[in-house]
Amino acid sequence: MKMNKKFNLLFAIFCYMAIILVDGSVEASAAESFIQGSGYEQGNYDLEAIQPTAFNWTRQSRFSGSEAFDMKWSFKTEGRVRSSPAIAADGTIYVGSDDGHLYALTASGEQKWKFAINGSDFGNPGIYLSPSIGADGTIYVGGDDSYLYAIHPDGTLKWDLKIGSLVFVSPSPAIGADGTIYVATEDGTFHAISDDGDTGREKWSYKISAFWPMIKSSPVIAADGKIYVGDFEGILYAFEPEQDADDVKPKWIFETKTGSAIRATPAIGDDGTIYLGSEDGNLYVLDSSGQLQWRFDAKDPISSTPVSVLTVRSI
């Protein structure tokens, strides 16, 4: 019996650690549209873009990688680059910098334009999160000046919206099927923003009530439209997309075993199963109603998102 349990434990570890090899071994064709992730609602992204959002847990590219691994070019900004770029259908690369600019680069590394954010109440402005590209090519990005920006592909401002706190903790804004932009801010507020063309409008927001109300992970959207986001006190929130703006409530919440921070964005399986890592060292597996199915103790903090998901029976 002990040997059987030990084997099951090792098998689960193997499945979790080898996930990259499972999905990453499939070479994708350049003719295919962008695929966000297994079980994930595509949302209103530019699906012809090479990488319209940094959050893609299958890590599958539409293109074959380089065989030579020689550096083709480099581009230096005036600050640190802390996040992944987004890449448009025409090969334009969008990347933010600590210097307070969003840069647009050609596929050969030449600067097309740079966009300056308004500035920060805390000194030098900075863009710490990855941009996302909407279906019409609009680039959405937030900065530590408390604004969410919508920028045209030519580098001109479409609109900006002050949403109350620093926007630098989420890896990338999530875009729903109807074009709603979901983004979290450091003060523990989760925002649903509508792109109304010339303006951005807050549809609803939810302020976490906690001793340490911070959100350090990006929201993720399931195939049924529910949005999931975790906070710094180990709570995962599930929201329906349609809310009464005066009375926003989570559909359900799940509290981790120890209340340790959730820094990693959950992954969602084909059947709606939610895979959630926590700084308490546990991988939690929930069904779509928020009920715990099983958990795995990795012994050390989990601060990254599972690359893909496999169906693994309880240990």
UniProtKB/TrEMBL annotation:
Residue intervals of the Pyrrolo-quinoline quinone repeat domain: 73-242
Keywords (A to Z) from UniProt: Signal
Signal sequence segment: 1-30
SMART domains attached to this UniProt entry: PQQ
Xref: Pfam families: PQQ_2
InterPro entries found in the cross-reference section: PQQ_b-propeller_rpt (IPR018391), PQQ_rpt_dom (IPR002372), Quinoprotein_ADH-like_sf (IPR011047)
Top-rank taxon: Bacteria
Protein name per the record: Pyrrolo-quinoline quinone repeat-containing protein
